[in-house]
From TrEMBL:
Binds 2 heme c groups covalently per subunit. The keyword Signal applies. Residues 30-108, 117-193 form the Cytochrome c domain. The keyword Hydrolase does not apply. Heme c 1 binds at C42, C45, H46, M85. It is found in: Periplasm. This is Cytochrome c class I. GO terms for cellular component: periplasmic space. Residues 1-29 form the signal peptide. It comes from the Bacteria. One of its GO terms (molecular function) is heme binding. It holds the Pfam family Cytochrom_C.
Length: 193
């Protein structure tokens, strides 16, 4: 191995370790109990224990904490649109967001009830999703958990990425290549996990 490649490798490893330590420190600082108290304002839409009964609102139980914080910050800044969530996020501090994320991520997720034939069609196309969202669609770091999410909610988000009304550069490009049938099948499969 060339010296410059060796040093670049060490530098990259050091930066990754530093990033992991920073994230671990913020995760340790999160207070699940405080998040539970703060979550009372979330139950009207996201349901008790983070299990929304209305497909208009996402299930938050078991969601990745990094993703929750990222989305709350996006709603607060206005980079993600949603009038209800923008208003809800405005009053949240970074600590509030971290506590809420710790609470919701600690809750037991569930599996959505779906049409098994539609889910079977979606499974055949799911490899493009599972690369980022995890082999069981459990989510990874800032990539959200898709497993157990309302299929109608997932379909709505994929359509928003496809039309460009929701931004997320890789998702916009991926969704543009999906037909309406692909979207419905993928949403059914991912919700069934």
């Amino acid at each position: 191995m060339k010296k410059s490649n060796f040093y670049n490798s060490i530098m990259l490893s050091t930066l990754c370790l530093f990033g992991t330590l920073i994230f671990a420190a913020s995760a340790i600082a999160a207070d699940v109990k405080a998040g539970e108290k703060k979550a009372s304002a979330c139950t009207n839409c996201h349901g008790l224990n983070g299990i929304s009964v209305d497909a208009q609102f996402p299930v938050l139980a078991g969601q990745r904490p990094e993703y929750i914080v990222k989305q709350l910050k996006a709603f607060k800044s206005g980079s993600r649109q949603g009038p209800i969530m923008k208003n809800m996020a405005q009053g949240l501090s970074d600590e509030d967001m971290t506590d809420l994320a710790a609470y919701f991520s600690s809750l037991q997720p569930r599996t959505a009830v779906v049409d098994p034939k539609l889910a079977e069609l979606g499974e055949k196309q799911s490899a493009m999703c599972l690369g980022c969202h995890g082999k069981g669609a459990e989510g990874r770091m800032q990539f959200p958990r898709l497993a157990g999410q309302h299929p109608d909610y997932l379909a709505k988000q994929l359509k928003a990425f496809k039309s460009g009304t929701r931004k997320g550069s890789p998702m916009n490009a991926i969704a543009k290549n999906l037909s309406e049938e692909d979207i419905e099948a993928l949403a059914a499969y991912l919700g069934s996990l």
